């Protein structure tokens, strides 16, 4: 286990954000008592997508029934388009017809789409009811279910309309990952690796050593990676919930490039984690070109990202074949920019990220994209 201290420095007293995160198998054991401990009622709207309903629905609903819950089941299509006003409007109607009031809460069962949509519904229904997250993907377990950012999409951009509405409880069961396609494991692993880059060099080393173990869902490596990632994000969010100090912004390492790629891929053809992996490569090069990251650290970072695999031809179609100026233009439409200026999260060293406040010359951004192209053009396809 590399002797890594899994309790984060600075969170030994388990602050509120971390105490809301429960990791275990089966995580729903004693769910009634768990809800009571966190001040939650046993009246629950359970939101699935079509996939999570099929895979876990009967077991989850039976468990709620056995624990004496009153519940209302809702299901949405398993696609990004479900994060929309039209989907939300339909769900509001179903909840109103079922006499759901502010004494209820909402349990979101799924990946990022269900988590975001469920959080958005909970934040706005009756001016806000509690939301509980039950993430079923690695990406959701380690990133999107934590931190209270909930949103729906607009045709002009992703996640542009939303709220800060923190979950009252986040229940993570690594066993759910057994049903996940390998491509989705890689996509989630991108966010896990991100935490090593931005916050914890020993964790980076652990991930480098045990990358294959985690990808193969081997214990205890998988659960430890999930716990560490979730606790890092919870700690950062608690210290800077609304991104006022710049600390929370460091969670967006690689994301400025990634959001541009996602926009060009129409939010359909490229997984978020795949875009983030490419974005982190470009961000490493930009950190180096601006004089912050030394050559040995750059090479260590690239060596870890070299372990990621993509579907054959994906990177060529969605990155290598895209004009650099077009990608830069798409990046400029990112909601993360401030005063029409791109905001980059860079590394001073492995395990230490910062938000660069000043502008970066476009030529250096384009150079970093080109360096990323050369990296991926040499990279073996999956």
Structural features, described:
This protein has helices at residues 16-19, 31-37, 50-66, 85-97, 112-124, 138-144, 182-199, 201-215, 221-239, 255-264, 272-289, 295-305, 314-320, 324-331, 362-378; strands at 21-23, 43-49, 70-76, 105-110, 131-135, 149-154, 157-164, 169-172, 344-349, 352-356. With 382 residues, it is an alpha/beta fold. It folds into 2 domains: 16-178, Rossmann fold (3-Layer(aba) Sandwich); 181-378, Dehydroquinate synthase-like - alpha domain (Dehydroquinate synthase-like, alpha domain). The two termini are 28 Å apart.
Secondary-structure blueprint of this entry?
Blueprint: H1 16-19, E1 21-23, H2 31-37, E2 43-49, H3 50-66, E3 70-76, H4 85-97, E4 105-110, H5 112-124, E5 131-135, H6 138-144, E6 149-154, E7 157-164, E8 169-172, H7 182-199, H8 201-215, H9 221-239, H10 255-264, H11 272-289, H12 295-305, H13 314-320, H14 324-331, E9 344-349, E10 352-356, H15 362-378
Parallel strand pairs: 1-8, 2-3, 2-4, 4-5, 5-8
Antiparallel strand pairs: 6-7, 9-10
